[in-house]
Structures are given as C-alpha cells and as structure tokens.
Amino acid sequence: MFTPFVLGLCAFWAMSLATSLSHAQSSDYPVKPVKIIAPSAAGGGFDLVGRVLAAKLSEQLGHQFVVENRSGGGTLVGTQTVARSAPDGYTLLVGGLSNMALNMGLYKQPGYDPLQDFVPLRVVVSHSYTLIGRKDLPFNNLKELISYSQAHPNKLNIGSSGPGTGQFILASLLQTVGKADLQLIPYKGAQPVYLDLLADRVDLFFDNSTTTRPHITSNRVKAFAVSSRQRAADAPNIPTLIETGVMDLEMETWFGLFAPAKTPPAVIEKLRQEIDKAMKLPEVRTALSQGSGRILSMNTAETEAMLKSEYQKWPALLNKAGVKPE
Q: How far are the Cα atoms of 40, 115, 169, 179 from residue 173, in angstroms, in the given order?
C-alpha cells in the first residue's frame, strides 16, 4: 500500500512531467510545415486571410505555413477536414462567419460543431459585403432593382459562392426579405462568379467588399448597397442596406484562425502570441483590411463571447427569413 507521502510524490512527478511536456510542445513547435485550410476556392476572403497570416507566421516561426484551398459544399468540406484532423497544431482552419455560424442554420447535419470541435486562435478582420451588378443593367439603385425583378419574373440572376457562404445568405435574404425575384446560381468560389459577371453571363453578386472594390473603382460593375451598419470609408457613395429602405439588415463577415479542439494548450498559446505579434505590423493590417476591412483586436474571452453570440444569432435569423436547413 502506498503511503500518502508516496502518493503525493507521484502526483508531483505527474504534474511536473505534464508541465515539462507542455513547455516542450510550445518551445519545439513547429518542427515541420503547418497546413492552413481555407474552405473555399482561391481568391476570396478565406484565402486572403489564410495567405497573409501564413506568410507572416512562416517568417516568424521558421517553418512553412502553407495554405490549402479545400472547397466544396459551401465551406463544409474544408471545415469538416480540419475538425477530423489530428489536434497537434499542424492543421489549422481559416474560420469565418460562414463556417462558424451560418452553416448551423443552413444544414441539419453540418458534420461539426463550431464551439465543440474548434478552438479560436484569433479573429483578425471583419468585412462588409457589397451588392454589385453588370454595368449595363437598366436600374441604378436597390429599390429600382427590386421593382425591375418583380416586373420581370425569372429575368435576373445572382451568383453565389455556395450554400455555406455569406454570399449565399445575402442573396437568399434579398429574395425572401427584400422580395426580389432572382434566380440564384451557385458557384464554388468568388472568382468563378466574377468570370461570368464580367462576361455578362451573371447579373448580380453580393460579395465581400474587399474583392468587389477593384471592379467598382475600375467602373466595370454597378454598386447598389453595402451590408454594414455604416457606409464604407473607401466607398462613401454606396448606401447601406438599411439606408435603401429595402432591408433592415446588417451583416459583416469576419475571419480568423482556428485549431481543432484538444490541440495542446501550449501550442494554442504560442500561435495566439505569434498572431498577435503579426497583427501589430502595419503591412499585415493593411494587407488584411485591403481598404474596406475593419481590423479586429479581441482577447480570448472577447473572441469566445463573440463566437457564441454569432452561433446563436444567425440560425435564428435565417429561420425567421424562411431559409430552411438542408
């Protein structure tokens, strides 16, 4: 029989070993390349955030952080892949509004739970969406768009980056809440939509404001509204959805890095510290904001509270708007 002294000594050794292993995990990590999965095609917001942070983390930590685009099922395929990966810090996820909140109201069985299967590292930037359309469309504001669509049923179409994306949600809400008569066309990412939009094969697209800006400033498309509560600083002439009087809706998409649940705490903290370090750099902030983004600076508790709020808010709003989970 072990004496209390021996039992206490064993407990002390166990705690010391755990502490040593934790420090070792933190100090050694990473020892090989780290994969960051962006659950969308190249060229969108997930891809941008992944590549900007991957480049800086590679530089800071001395090992490559490599972005892998894993599109399919909206954002389901890439997100499910990370949820099922080894929780060792070598497979990370670009998480955002789409895969961390909207999917919970879009799918009966998304295949993962954002709050249970992932640990937020940092949420770093938030963007509005901008509704754009072909340059030669015969209307110039959102009210005219709605009226035209109702007077010409099945005439207008709107591109979407897939069921799990903010583009899909806003297109759907434009139909249900805004009462626009539109044909929704799904794509695997933003870039394929632009190919058809600029070739006059797609009429409208409600996309991340950052990726719409070059097309707006080059006068290749019309801009109808932004989804944020306030007008964008880099496009003050574009009204908000609320200002148009068509939809009382505010929506911003946010992005950050996430790790699988059960990733060692020491690795989690090291990644958070390195992301915080990167986010202090002007070039990183500029690259992430791209003029229309809002840099976010939240601690762990604030991030977790925000995620829980979004997780609860959007499924209820989608249900209210008549968007039923598949």
A: 21, 25, 6, 8
